[in-house]
From TrEMBL:
Keywords: Pyridoxal phosphate. InterPro entries: DegT/StrS_aminotransferase (IPR000653), PyrdxlP-dep_Trfase (IPR015424), PyrdxlP-dep_Trfase_major (IPR015421), PyrdxlP-dep_Trfase_small (IPR015422). Belongs to the DegT/DnrJ/EryC1 family. The keyword Membrane does not apply. CDD domains: AHBA_syn. Pfam families: DegT_DnrJ_EryC1. It comes from Paenibacillus eucommiae. This is dTDP-4-amino-4,6-dideoxygalactose transaminase.
Length: 412
């Protein structure tokens, strides 16, 4: 095996051509937006665009009911509110996620409790979830990280045994299948984001699915996204009995969403293929572990997170990351810098300034070591971007770059 001189030491970089790019928005979106404007209203309840967007989404997911929101964060908050999560309840979730997973929990004055992760799928470990269940536990907020499904059979089994609500955070996992069924349809609610960095974008926006198929649950969910006003049967009831935010989606976002959904299968198909190609291409390399797809699952790769096994290499994760960068392969050490509970909000327990509420209800604290596997994943992983617009050549050069650096630094 020939060892090539790394670009970081003056060798020639593997990748010299720019990565493929493409237009996410085109005439399809423009046509829909123009039609929205011509309605002379941009209010979801009076116009047809948000309604059409949801109808198209429901058709893809084979659902009867879903609700549009102003963001993915809002979708999760709405699901929690509709599920009845309230002051002092505990919600078990993942320590490796976007802050948007946690915001709704804290605005309901409920308490996030973190379960540890599987070391290779990076999703919540059912054994750890079960070990975190206590008297106040009301829900499991499952994060399907980076397009890879969580172990839903075991999670749903735990939820049934302990009578817990299940909310799925699918912000990174469009068209992610688990045992032949899309994630977002297993729990009580599935939450999606259409912010500008997800598989599809409406600028900002989100969707909550109502999986019971019950009209009463749909009404509760719909109302929680709209100040708890009930806009049904031609009537509006403003006689509210508890607090809910205004998280409405506008017709402009709905219009863009209609056109974006038409591209969803292509986008997810490209990403799935590229993710699988990288995994096949780096198989068996020293010092590298590809992400493991959950058994029975299929990933639509919102990003690609591989692990560096430092004991098999003569370099650190950070040195590997820098060498790969110099080969022309952009990457980042880890996904988020630290487990979310290491943020000052959790360390100082200040969801609300000048207060320790709701943490002081139970006196919970969040210390380093709380989820050791999650911490190790963040300490040893390398993040690679995946785009549906990358070319086959981009993907083979990414593989060649990883291969070159791994072989150079292998510990023999
Ligand atoms: C993006 C994201 C969110 C939040 O979505 P926004 O639309 O940005 O509010 C929540 N959870 C996860 C896992 C995400 O990736």
């Amino acid at each position: 095996m020939s060892i090539e001189k790394l670009a970081i030491f003056g060798g020639s970089p593997v990748k010299t051509m720019p990565f493929g790019t493409g237009k996410r928005f085109g005439e399809e979106e423009a046509k829909e937006v123009l039609e929205a404007l011509e309605q002379n209203t941009l209010f979801y309840h009076f116009g047809s665009k948000v309604k059409q967007f949801l109808a198209d989404f429901n058709a893809i997911y084979n659902l009867q009911y879903s609700v549009a929101t102003s963001s993915g964060t809002a979708a999760i908050h709405v699901a929690l509110g509709a599920a009845g999560i309230t002051v002092g309840d505990e919600v078990i979730t993942s320590p490796v996620t976007d802050q948007g997973t946690l915001i709704g929990i804290l605005y309901q004055n409920a308490i996030p409790v973190f379960a540890d992760l599987d070391p290779h799928t990076y999703n919540m470990d059912p054994i750890s979830i079960e070990s975190r269940i206590a008297g106040r536990t009301k829900a499991i907020l499952v994060v399907h990280l980076a397009g890879n499904p969580a172990d839903m059979d075991r999670i749903m089994d735990i939820a049934r045994r302990y009578k817990l609500k299940v909310i799925e955070d699918c912000a990174q996992s469009y068209l992610t299948a688990y045992k032949g069924r899309y994630v977002g349809t297993f729990g009580d609610y599935g939450c999606f984001s259409t912010n500008d960095f997800k598989h599809i974008s409406t600028g900002d926006g989100g969707i909550v699915t109502v999986n019971s198929g019950e009209q009463a649950d749909y009404y509760t969910t719909h109302a929680f996204a709209d100040k708890n006003y009930h806009r049904f049967g031609g009537m509006v009831s403003r006689d509210i009995s508890s607090l809910a935010p205004n998280y409405r989606m506008t017709e402009l976002q709905g219009a863009v969403g209609i056109a974006q959904l038409k591209k969803l299968h292509w986008i997810c198909g490209q990403r799935e293929r590229y993710g699988e190609t990288i995994t096949a291409g780096i198989q068996g390399l020293p010092g590298i572990a590809a992400p493991k797809i959950t058994e029975g699952g299929k990933s639509t790769y919102w990003f690609y997170l591989m692990l560096i096994k430092e004991e098999e290499l003569t370099c650190t994760r950070d040195a590997f990351s820098q060498a790969l960068e110099k080969e022309g392969i952009p990457n980042a050490p880890g996904y988020i810098a630290e487990a979310v509970y290491m943020n000052r909000l959790f360390q100082h327990r200040t969801a609300y300034s000048g207060s320790h509420f709701p943490f002081d209800i139970t006196g919970i604290t969040y210390s380093e070591g709380l989820c050791p596997v999650a911490e190790e994943i963040l300490r040893t992983s390398i993040y690679l971007n995946i785009s549906e617009f990358y070319t086959e050549q981009d993907i083979s050069e990414m593989i060649a770059g990883i291969r070159k650096v791994a072989l150079y630094y292998q510990n023999i």
